[in-house]
């Protein structure tokens, strides 16, 4: 375990700590390709995973040898990929084993490596990253992230590109309602970790997905309805285009987010308004006009304090829609 002298650091390349990404000050003398910010992280990594993979990292982290032919080069690349995939599985299994034994702190570096190697192999936008993220979140949650530097790493990495990674990695695409459960789940993890800004973003994302879906669905419905009404002279029943389980999930997600929004006295009422509007639209399409009205009225009340003209106009339109639907229903029954 040596200090890295400035001269030993290649020009233009910032060496960073294996565990927290802070500028490195030490190198593992056994492999000479792994760097640390200090002894704390070096020891933590060694005890968790590095001792087991130290030698395996050497071929991965040293420059590729010179190959005589393209064939040889391809073979070399394949070997590299194979090694990386092996490491991914190995680190993942080790992290899982620690978690199973309740050793959360030991699990963190192993989970972290499982994620990093996945990023190397699969890129930043792969569905393959999801299990590693969840494992890391679980390990960090259990460990309580007492380590400030690791905490910083976790937050910055999750807040920058990782959000997009997670989003894009969901198999259904970033805006699909089937993805909203994933956002919601991850948001809850971060809420538990008291990463409130991050959970906030994720809750907003989940709300937006439902809002966009329901809004588009309503637009399509009313277009179809106006065409059909000309032909048949009768109105169509509302529907959400969802099955019962999906409707139940939408309600569960949106009402959970709403209670979180309301309990945190958000300084941004427009986020609460978004959830209220979405719930109103959902109940409207489910033909529960009294609940739809209730949520829309609450949204309007908030919009008044927030003094957004545009927001109020949108909510009034929604209310008009609900009222006119009620009227039509009245006519239909008389
Ligand atoms: Zn470190
Ligand atoms: Zn090493």
Residues in β-strands, percent:
under 5%
Please give the alpha-carbon distance between the first and last residues.
Answer: 87 Å
Order of helices and strands: EEEHHHHHHHHHHH
Q: What class would the helix/strand composition place it in?
A: mainly alpha
Adjacency order of strands in the biggest sheet: 1-2-3
Compounds present? Answer: zinc ion
Instruction: Give me the number of helical elements.
Output: 11
Q: Can you give the helix content as a percent range?
A: over 70%
The total of beta strands comes to 3
* Count of discrete domains: 2
Low-confidence stretches: 1-12, 159-171
Task: Describe the secondary-structure layout.
Elements (H helix, E strand, L loop, with lengths): L1 E2 L22 E2 L7 E2 L2 H23 L8 H31 L3 H19 L6 H15 L4 H22 L7 H16 L3 H37 L11 H20 L5 H17 L3 H18 L2 H25 L1
Antiparallel strand pairs: 1-2, 2-3
Helix pairs in contact: 1-2, 1-3, 2-3, 2-4, 3-4, 4-6, 6-7, 7-8, 7-9, 8-9, 9-10, 9-11, 10-11
The chain binds zinc ion (ZN) (2 copies).
